[in-house]
Each structure stands twice: as C-alpha cells, then as structure tokens.
Amino acid sequence: MPSLPSRRSVLSVGGAGLLGMSFPQLLAAAEKPKAKLKATAKAVIFLHQWGGPGQHETVDPKPDAPDNVRGWYGATKTKLPGIIFGEKIPKLAAMNDKFTVIRCLQHNMKNHNSAGYYSLTGVAPPTDDQRLRDSLELFPAYGSIVDKLAPTPKGTATFVSYPHVIADGSITPGQHASFLGKGHNPLFVNQDPSKPEFKLPELTLPQNLSVERLENRRDILKLIDEQAELLETSLVAQGLDESYQKAVAMLTSPRFKQAFDLTKETQKTRDTFGDTAYGQGCLLARRCVEAGAKFINVYFSRSIGGKGQGWDYHGFNKENVPDRLKELLPMTDQTLPALLTDLEERGLLDDVLVVWVGEFGRTPRISSNGGRDHWPQCYSAILAGGGTKKGFVYGASDKLGAYATTGQARPEDLAATMFEALGIDSETEITDKLNRPLPISRGKPIREVMA
Predict the structure, then answer these.
(1) Do 420 and 435 touch, CB atoms closer than 8 A?
(2) Could you count the other beta carbons within 10 Å of the beta carbon of residue 28?
(3) Which of 5, 34, 429, 446 is the most buried (most CB within 10 A)?
(4) Confidence label for 210 from pLDDT (cuts 50, 70 and 90)
(5) Domains along the chain with CATH numbers
(6) Going by C-beta distance under 8 Å and a sequence separation of 6 or more, which residues neighbour residue 49?
(7) What band does 255 get if pLDDT is binned at 50, 70 and 90?
C-alpha cells in the first residue's frame, strides 16, 4: 500500500477520496507524527526568565569592554578554561561543567509581548508590537503541543505552568493551547509555591458522588458548576468541556496531587532552593517530573518583591539597577544550581532537559537612564541534561556582546531541539481552526549542543 501523503498534498486533492479514505480521514491520518524518534529526555523544565536577563551580568560578561558596556560587575572564572561568567553567579560558574551555554540566540522582536510569544512558542509573531493580543489565531505553547502529540497517561497533567500569567499591559500570547483546544491547556496554578497554604487546586468529591458516577458527563459538569472557584485557578477545569475525562482521571490520582505537597520535602531541601516563589517553583518542577509531567513552565517572574517585571532592568537612575540586580542574580545563583544538583543527585538529570532562557537579552551599552534596554540581536541561554552536552559553550558574541560572531540559533531552533529531545519530530504538523497544516517548529534542532 502506498504511503500516506503529507498534509500539504492532501489539501491539494480537494474533497475527493484518496486511497479509499475520506478527506477528513486523510487529514487526521496526515496529522499523526512521523516515526517516533529516540527521546533523550522524558521531560522538559522550561525556566522562562521574563523580562530578559542581561548576557553581560550572567553568562557572557565583557570585562575588558568600556565602562558603559562592562557594567556594574566584573567576571569570575568557571570550571572551563577560558570561559568566564558574571561575578555575581559564582555557584553557576563553579558547576558549568554540568551544562551547555548558548551565546548566540537572536531574533528581531524588541517588545515584551511579541518577544515573549516568540520565546514561548518558537513562532515569530506577525508583528513586533507591544499591543500584540492573545488570540486563537496565534500558536500554542510548547507544552500544549506535547500534550497533543505525546500525552502522559491518565491521572497526570502533561503540561503544568505556574505561578503567574505573564503580561506587559496585556496578557502575553503563547501560554495556553490556543487553536488546539482547551483540552490541551496546561494545569495552571496561580499560587505562590513558597506560601504555607500552597496546594494544587482540585475538585473535591461530595460524599454522595462516586468515582463511577463521574463517568457521566452531566455529573462532572455539575460538579464543576458547584465548585466555580476552581475555574479561576485551574485551566484543566476550564477545558473540561472538551476533555472532562482528563480531569476525572486527575481527580482520582493521589500520586499527582501529592506532587504539589511541598511539605513532603525536608526543610533542608526547601532551604537549598530558597524561600521564594521561583525557588520553590523549581523544586515543584522536579516533583512534577517525578509524578510524570512532561513539560513544566516556571515563570520567573511577574515581579520581585512587588517591583518591576522580572529581569526588565531599564533603570531610571544609576542606583536602582544595581539594587535590583542584587536581588535577581543571587536568586538565580541559588536556585538554578540547586535544581541541577538535586536532579543529578536523584539520577534524573540525564532524563530531564532544563532550559533557562528569557525572551531577549539586554543592550550592550548602558543607556542614559542608567540601565540596559531590550536587545534581541544576541542573547544567552543555558541547557542542562536531557541529552545535551556538559561543559560546552555554543556560539560567541563580539567584544561588546552585541552580535554573534560564531554560531546561530533562534527561538524556533530551540523549539525544535526541545521537541526532538522528547522524541517528537520537529517537522510534525498540526492543524489550525481552518484546517491549515502548520509545522510545530519552523527551525532545526541545534545539533551542536546535543551529546
């Protein structure tokens, strides 16, 4: 029997049947992924650094550049000869033989919402406009695609995200399933994991409602109606009209609900990660992986102590930027090493891909207002575990940290790398609301960073 055509060739056929199959059957068949790749990771922990961390203050400092480029801090040596990091992240520098640094990420989106959407989906927005609004015309989040193509067994959420809805004026697109349908939305938890009252928002079964009765669609929807507060905290519940069986399975899965009980961890472990939403969020990510989740978005962060948008340190005077970095850099230097060490000690790091990246970097030169502005032309990322190289640096920037001189990587390439690490062919196609075939990635896997 001849092989099935691609979706594009199917669409050219029109309404006629082919190979004895109806047009809708052909569409469904063509949407299936190609032969499964060998996965190098069972899960991805995507640590999105909202606001855009500066390459000069983190993993690509320029200590020999002029003062207005070099910035407020010096550099420190790492485990790798000739490789230096910013002086305020010494713990990361001391363990950079455990991960890969990419120093040549680049794109052209200078606004948070457009660059954020690009970073969260791997798809360039139609325009670089701060007024870019979330809509079902835009592309789904990475985790929603994973849930569509390689979902976890019943009782576990494939895609988990927390603890904020990131936004800059309006909600940044790329945080949900979009045209894939609400059934592929993340389990979104809008709570601070560092708070004593933190727990998984969940449905509770009334005494007169058995698990068996939950197989009845009317009963489960009635239960949702009666517990309307859940709709404000759980996107799984919001998608129940399309995938109520998924919620039923999670209702009766104590293993996954227990993953959100951070009191099961020792105080020593919790202290190692830090008593912050981001620190405890990274610890929670490991617990979600252990419970079977495949893609976890941890957003760092909506604000630090109620001030500003995460890493967005434009600055308004010469003093407030260093003060802000005194919060951002130590938190990063505590939490990311804690996560990588914890995963390694538990034998999980080889099976989990950790990605640390923002929507862009910061300008090479310090601006007149005392900080660094948005800079997508060249920025950095960290990749650890999940089949990536250890102690490796991919790409290089020029003497000012402005443009890549070696290597090239874009958000769509990072997307392709993550999908293929999970065993999903990056050329797989999905369909939008108009049944148009769309590849899940417009890029190519960054082979240079894979072991």
Answers:
(1) no
(2) 12
(3) 446
(4) low
(5) 33-195+265-449 (3.40.720.10), 200-259 (no CATH)
(6) 300, 310, 311, 356, 357, 358
(7) confident
**Among 2, 8, 4, residue whose Cα is nearest residue 29:** 4
Coil, strand or helix: which one is 439?
strand
Helix (H) or strand (E) segment spanning residue 396 = strand 396-397
Q: Using the 8-state DSSP alphabet, how is residue 101 labeled?
A: E
The token pair at 365 is 């030169």
- List phi, psi (to 5°) of 232: -85, -15
According to DSSP, the residues that pair with 49 across neighbouring strands are 300, 358
Beta pairing partners, 100: 383, 392
Summarize pLDDT for 309-349 with one digit per residue, the tens: 789 988 766 667 878 898 899 999 999 999 999 999 999 99
φ, ψ for residue 420, nearest 5 deg: -70, -30
Q: What is the pTM of this model?
A: 0.86
Provide DSSP, 186-229: -EE--S-TTSTT---------TT--TGGGGSHHHHHHHHHHTGG
Which tokens go with 328? 């951002």
